[in-house]
Specification:
Length: 186
Amino acid sequence: MNLFVKNMVSMRCKMVVESVLDELGLHYTVVELGNVKIKENLSAEQHALLETTLLKYGLELKDDKKNMLIEEIKNVIIEMVHYSDEPPKINFSNYLSEKLKYNYTYLSNLFSEVKGTTVEHFIIAHKIERVKELLVYDELTLSEIAWKLHYSSVGHLSSQFKKVTGLTPSHFKKSKPKQLIPLDRV
């Protein structure tokens, strides 16, 4: 049985979900960002208990097909931007279509309709948040960050960063405290 979990955006969230499933005696085969496959079919009582337990951790079971697809889109983007060292070899619209088995125009229109923002703006917001994180770590140069996140140049990254945050990357790096946004709020 497939379950879709909203706000499951980090490795820590995956660990929480695995722990909750273990605690409830449910046997899972896959726990990915936003998606869980369990071996058994849930009774109404088990479903309610799982839903209540996940809510304690800020996680939410999703049943609506459109909302489930939106969560899948968000999770593919989050995984690509924040957790993948290798970017897709094809452009993102094709990558998303292949990954989710839907036409990109449909996915894009649905996302805009439900979230009130475009897929492109969602990707940019996450890329900027990732840039902020990498600047805080101070392990990569701005050129390396630009390359890692597939910006055409450092200038393009800097321009987009300033447009979104109001700061240049170097000014952000010098600022105290650094404002990182939790992934589920980006």
